[in-house]
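User: I want to check something. If I give you two sequences, will you return the structure for each one separately, not as a complex?

Assistant: Yes, each is folded on its own. Here is the first sequence with its structure:
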Amino acid sequence: MSCRGCEWVDRARQGRHPDFVVELPSSCVLLADEQAYPGYSIVVRKEHHEHLAALPLEQQVGLWEDVARVASALETELAPRRINYACLGNFMTHVHWHVIPRYADDPEPLHPIWVRPLEERRVALPDARRHDIIGRLRRALGR
């Protein structure tokens, strides 16, 4: 069975994922393909597992430490008004976290981003802006 999360991690480690940001102790960090929220990142657990609660607590904590580091880097580098976090697993069952910066110009500030239609969220950043955000996050994460 193919796993999208495992494929992302493999591609990131091989230098073949264009949105790869950094590898952290428990995860690989990627920019999401929904950049209507610039810096929106996906923190993907390096090893395959489908249920966060079934992981040993120390592994859950390690993954959360990576998530917190990404959020801190986003706050430092992009100055969002707020950061949202989500660990869903409905679409991609591989354990991962969404780390979503929310800005002052947010069209739906009181709702999760998923209330907006996908075509409004799935915005590609110009290459220069994408590379800038990736570079800034890498520096902020010490890599």
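And separately, the second sequence with its own structure:
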Amino acid sequence: MTKYEVPENLGIEQKVYSKWLSQKADSLRKRNKKKDGLKCGSTGEYKGAIHKAVMKSVGVDFYIGEKLDWSLLCKYNSEDARKGGVEYMKKFAKLPTVDHYDDRKNLNFKICSWIVNDSKNHMSYDEFVALCEKVLKHNKVLNEKHLI
């Protein structure tokens, strides 16, 4: 038995989940420390916070409610991405990843797809929602004017 049991609904092996969890915790901790100068916890604390977010996610993207493709964990390859470009990257749009929900000072994470996380970037939840509302509003205008 492991401290962070993979949720059954994800349909992946414990070994894959444990590897992903360790990699995410380590990379987020290092990035937070480097970019933001934060000293907000050990790798173990990051693992706990990420695992908690996974459990709450029930396998879906927090922001858009779509099912994530957990079978993609630990399959992304940087060399293949360089060779395959955009087409390769598109295959990983529903790859589960970890997003800082509010700020980098707290270990408050949400699980979302890679494409949503990339789109949200460094925005807060409210900023992201406001941007999405602008996109939808403008899309309606474009449709009404038959510009798309």
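Because they were folded independently, the notes below concern the second chain alone. Residues 8-120 form one domain. The mean pLDDT is 92.
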